[in-house]
Amino acid sequence: MAEEVKQTKTSEFDSASFLKNLTSRPGVYRMIDDTGTVIYVGKAKNLKKRVSSYFRKTGLTSKTRVMVAQIATIETTVTHTENEALILENNLIKDLMPRYNILLRDDKSYPYLLISGDKFPRLSYHRGAKRKAGRYFGPYPSAGSVRDSLNLLQKLFPVRQCEDSYYQNRSRPCLQYQIKRCTAPCVGLISEDEYKKDVEHTIMFLEGKNKQVMDDLSAEMDAASQRLDFEQAAVIRDKVIALRRVQERQYVSSDQGEFDVLAAIVKDGMAVVEVCFIRGGRNLGSKSYFPKGSGDSSPEELLSAFVPQYYLGKNVPTEILVSHEPEDSDLLQDVLQTESGHKVSIRKPQRGQGVRWMQMASTNADISLTQRLSSRSNLLQRFEMLQDALNLDELPKRIECFDISHTRGERTVASCVVFGLEGAIKADYRKFNIEGITGGDDYAAMNQALTRRFTRLQKGEGKRPDLLLIDGGKGQIKEAQEVLEELNLSDLPILGIAKGPERRPGEETLFLVGRAGEVTLTADSPALHLLQQVRDEAHRFAITGHRQRRAKARKTSTLEHIEGLGPKRRQKLLQQFGGIQEVQRAGVEDLAKVDGISKSLAQKIYDVFHGDN
Question: Residues in domain UVR (predicted)?
């Protein structure tokens, strides 16, 4: 059982007195300043020896000297073993977030792909506890990696990805069927046996059995050709070609192995750990982590702090390749083995495929750190604060905002602007000329614009946003929900931003789909400033597009649309009457007096301005 020991400050921390009575047993120590805030948490095999090292006269880093000068109190917790101390230290760091510790932002849990256990299984994104029945594949480094895999698999094997509630209430095929991303099992357009084949091929693909999948498909193609079903053979042939291209372009593969690759780099006061996920010999992608308080640490110290925070309480692979040997590698292995229930190896690769994986991870780490150092820190801070405010699983690196503009329903235009960590991405801006709706119906206009934008996305055009921002209230948000559900994109976060009653900046009302009530941000919040900037840019772009469309329409003469009235006759007509207004006032007989204008053509001109009667 852990034992608590506390030293209370009188005027200045008496390190000699405290160390004199400190135990040599393993445990955890907490350094506390004069405000009662824990500023550092550490573990030790020998508490007396480890804590004493902070009060030696030489050999301390500048960061450590500044920290020690702030100590008012030290509390210790004695544990049975060093392993127990490591686990306790990890829990306290995550709970207290001490400013002098190396801190890893909590990513909550890994994302996975799930194939459900239904009669017609669903392929879906999953994060959290594995309570649902079915097969889980992963983990993946990010939600984006999972969505890329889902999009890819939809093209290869059209297994349904829609929500069960949506699937169970269909009476006709949805848009996914029309764009050949689903075989519509919801309305019985595919047999259970045929659907089962696609599910089996999906599972084999996710297990890395690509060659077996292609062999099966080739056999099916030959069988279809033998029975003269050349249309089906062509469909299967296209799958084989697509699968082969995927192998060539989408993945970096080795013969076997399930492990993680961790590359650590410290440069210019900032540090990064790049984590690459290798499963079934396939690289599932990588993710960059920038731990706080790690700028003056060595790569070994960085990994020593990173590994327990990252892996404890989560799934741990059997092997972890590291760019630098952590200071307490043996201890970390023992704790991870105990926690996971299987053997765990932490090692620095020396030869072969492991070295090649590490080179790739180190290259990605260096690129990520260079980009981080050169990015505009103020904008990055706004994105991070927006993530915290909305409680998003991942940083929203791409925001798309939609707005509608018209004048009394005339020439409606919808705008889509895009913002990333680098600011406005103007090359990705889009305008949509809205047609076929009742003038002034903003809800229908929003529905049409979103449908056109995200249908193109499902066809492989453009990039998927991390956050969809809608300039409007609950009505516009509802339209967005319906469109994304129809297109099987219901996991995309939707945020509505509506102007307050006085329409003053800082009084906006925010609605996040899936969260009860409003999202409250103060008027000086950097996250709100970011949303305002994106919203205002969408508004500007929509108004500009609407004005251009309206001006173009008004520059076009009504006479240009009359059949049989060419440029020369139009010119004579305008010269004769002195302008379009006088032409509009003229009768049929007066119009027919102009050279080249017959009585039937004069009637057409008259009808354009006055109607058929």
Answer: 211-246
Rg of the chain on CA atoms, in Å: 33
pLDDT of 254 reads 44
CA 87 – CA 332 distance, rounded (Å): 10
Distance CA 175, CA 179 (A): 6
Q: Per residue in 476-503, pLDDT tens?
A: 999 999 999 989 898 899 999 988 766 6
pLDDT 10s digits, 271-316? 899 998 887 667 777 888 888 877 778 999 999 999 999 888 777 8
**DSSP character for 497?**
E
Average pLDDT of the chain to the nearest whole number: 84
Q: Identify which of 558, 390, 369 has the alpha carbon closest to the alpha carbon of residue 469.
A: 390
pLDDT confidence of residue 8: 44
In this structure, whether the domain defined by 15-96 belongs to CATH 3.90.226.10 is answered with no
How many residues can be counted in the chain?
613
> Domain spanning 259-371 has what CATH number?
3.30.420.340
The full 3-state SS of 527-569, as one line of letters, equals: HHHHHHHHHHHHHHHHHHHHHHHHHHHHHCCHHHHCCCCCHHH
* DSSP characters over 35-101: TS-EEEEEEESSHHHHHHGGG-SSS--HHHHHHHHT--EEEEEE-SSHHHHHHHHHHHHHHH--TTS
Query: Any idea where the domains of the chain sit in the sequence?
Result: 15-96, 259-371, 398-552, 558-610
Task: Give the contacts of 269 (CB within 8 A, at least 6 positions apart).
Answer: 295, 296
Measured in whole angstroms, how far is the alpha carbon of residue 528 from the centre of its chain? 19
What is the distance between the alpha carbons of residues 112 and 126, in angstroms, rounded to a whole number? 5
| pLDDT in the model for residue 288 | 86
Q: What share of the chain is helix, strand, coil (3-state, %, to 5)?
A: 45, 20, 35
User: How confident is the model over 203-207, as a mean pLDDT?
Assistant: 79
Q: From CA 410, how far away is CA 463, in angstroms rounded?
A: 31
> What's the N-to-C CA distance of the chain in angstroms?
98
Q: Can you name the residues that pair with 164 across neighbouring β-strands?
A: none
Whether 612 has a pLDDT exceeding 50, the answer reads: no
Which conformational region is residue 572 in: left (phi greater than 0), alpha (psi within -120 to 50 degrees), or beta? alpha
- Provide the greatest CA pair distance for the chain: 118
- pLDDT beyond 90 at 226: no
Asked whether this chain's domains 259-371 and 398-552 adopt the same fold, the reply is yes
Q: Report the CATH number of the 558-610 domain.
A: 1.10.150.20
Residues 6+ apart with CB under 8 A from 113: 123, 124, 125, 126, 136, 137, 138, 140, 146, 149, 150, 206
Q: Which fold has domain 398-552?
A: Nucleotidyltransferase; domain 5 (3.30.420)
Contacts 24+ apart (CB under 8 A), 505-511: 505/532, 508/532, 509/473, 511/473, 511/474, 511/477
What is the predicted pLDDT for the residue at 37?
92
Least confident residue range of 144-148, 320-324, 437-441:
144-148
